[in-house]
Design a protein that fits this description.
By secondary structure, this protein is mostly helical. The chain has 9 helices and 7 strands; from the N terminus they run H-H-H-H-E-E-H-E-H-H-E-E-H-H-E-E. It is globular.
Length: 274
């Protein structure tokens, strides 16, 4: 019992540490919706606050230069999608307040909301010392996430392939387990379940963001209501994109699994590729 409580406590601390940037940004979004005494547009304040916090994380070594690279990559990928999704022709969602720091209908602070996801994954990958079993060949996830990213654009004009892409992710990663070390012992869980849980928490954060009117969907313009659970699929697919981007920086390490006579699968090495 003592060991369980210790691991549970450490798990929570490590998760909080990994969520540092995302929690900071979400907290500011919520707070400034109710109290904002400055003349500078709120979105611009959020942008400057996000940049300042990123510099703080780097300066005090809470974040490594490699993790900062992931944030920049994901920010660029997200900016392209945001510019398209918020354009007048598409209007998937919009930002109802004024801003100076932005491109088209897209305030630059919004890119950091995506960066927070990349920041979380990069940091948690390192502090939990992730390992994987039955991980697919490196080129296959890359091809899949490229198709996922393209579908975010093309589904407005052609058939939406997200369910096919979801099925492909299950085929590709259905046997993959992620091994993580909370304290001294490695635990494991299906990688797909891990992605789903993270997507669920992002969806909770999205509800806080839209409630605080940081951005709104067309059906929330007159009155707020919870974001449709169908958005979970979009966040799940975006999670895969973020994961693969992080894998370019934190190269996946593997475990070798053996099936002894008792047919109990176990890891015999934490650093040996399959």
């Amino acid at each position: 019992m003592h060991r369980f409580l210790r691991e549970f406590w450490l798990f929570g601390l490590k998760q909080a540490y990994a969520c540092m940037f995302g929690g900071y940004l979400l907290g500011l979004i919520f707070l400034t919706n109710y109290w904002y005494p400055f003349s500078l547009p709120r979105y611009d304040f959020l942008f400057l606050a996000a940049v300042a916090f990123q510099l703080f994380l780097l300066g005090f070594k809470f974040e490594t230069p490699k993790e900062a690279i992931v944030i920049v990559l994901f920010h660029c990928v997200a900016t392209g999608m945001e510019l398209f999704k918020t354009s007048d022709a598409i209007g998937s969602w919009h930002y109802p307040e004024a801003f100076y720091f932005g491109i088209g209908n897209f305030p630059l602070f919004a890119g950091f909301m995506y960066s927070a996801v990349g920041s979380y994954l990069a940091r948690i990958w390192r502090i939990f010392e992730f390992r994987y079993s039955a991980y697919p060949e490196a080129w296959k996830p890359v091809v899949l996430v490229v198709l996922i990213y393209i579908n975010f654009f093309t589904h407005h004009y052609f058939y939406d392939l997200r369910w096919i892409l979801l099925a492909a992710s299950v085929i590709l990663f259905g046997r993959t387990y992620i091994y993580f070390k909370v304290d001294q012992v490695y635990r494991r869980m299906p990688l797909l379940l891990g992605w789903l849980l993270v997507a669920l928490f992002i969806w909770f954060g999205e509800n806080i963001g839209t409630y605080s009117r940081a951005w709104v969907y067309p059906d929330q313009s007159s009155q707020w209501h919870m974001v449709s659970p169908s958005k979970l699929l979009a966040w799940y697919l975006l999670m895969m994109l973020s994961f693969v981007l992080v894998s370019f920086v934190h190269k996946p390490k593997f475990v070798r699994l053996t099936i002894p006579s008792g047919k109990v699968e176990h890891a015999t090495s934490m650093d040996t590729p399959l």
